[in-house]
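Session log. Operator J.P. requested a structure for one protein chain; no other inputs attached. Running the standard single-chain path with token output.
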Amino acid sequence: MRLGVIGAGAWGTALAQLCAAGGETWLWAREAEVVAAIERDRENPLFLPGVPLSPAICATGDLADLAACEALLVVVPAQHLRAVLAGAPVGARPLILCAKGIEAGSGKLMSEVAAELHPEAPRAVLSGPSFAREVAEGKPTALTLACADTALRAALIARLGGGALRLYGSSDVIGAEIGGAVKNVLAIACGVVAGAGLGENARAATLARGFAEMTRFGVARGARMETLTGLSGLGDLVLTCGSTQSRNFSLGMGLGAGRAATALLADRRSVAEGAATAPVLRDAARATGVEMPVVDAVCALLEGARIEAVIEALLSRPLREE
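Structure written below.
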């Protein structure tokens, strides 16, 4: 199965490296300098410096070059997915959605956006605890591949998995997506705790109560509890809520240290998906009747609230049974 990867950020490049172990892989990049560097130097110095890339990766800036691929991994940021997919040669090719977020404006998950644009294309979601550099370097990683089509799911697992990558199959596409989207927002919250020097007790409490919010929202949207307690939910949450390798955790650290969200986001070449997802998630939760106070707190900080006021509001909430 010849694969194409749409998006050459750190994660897209790492996935292309993974795919290239099984044969020729096309990698589309928006940046001409990334295409040139990969073809010339076998490296992506902008997003994944220092990692030698496989000669089986063919970089391109033209989406039409992916027309010969049999399946496409879509790794562009969530808020750009609609625009990029609209110009991609999809047809009936399977789409493996790898971005984690909820679309602003529509409130749709990535699979829902893809279904609207390309209803004839089968859809799968690849999600779970995965720092791009470790995957690209061949370090052991376990992920969820969710797809409603049992045969396609097995074929994709056979093509992508193996070696240091262990893939667990699931039919719960919605659950895999919700876990990935919500954990980005919760990683910002845990970063705030670290940046403000609130201690490990507070970080553990934020992670645990945030996970309770994830499960409440996920189940309300039709996710299965076992998906949310698995790799694409709890697993990804644990990874990103305690490491500066996480862009969302790092953003939260800046907010916790008192820096303005506008300045922090302007400094970033890589996207912290949780910043865009947070207000969409808050609105979706309220529309669904799900209480998500940690998500509300992240939104308040992103909108300029004082950290002291946000912490006080959380700590003064009415007591309740767990």
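Operator note: The first strand starts at residue 3 and ends at 6.
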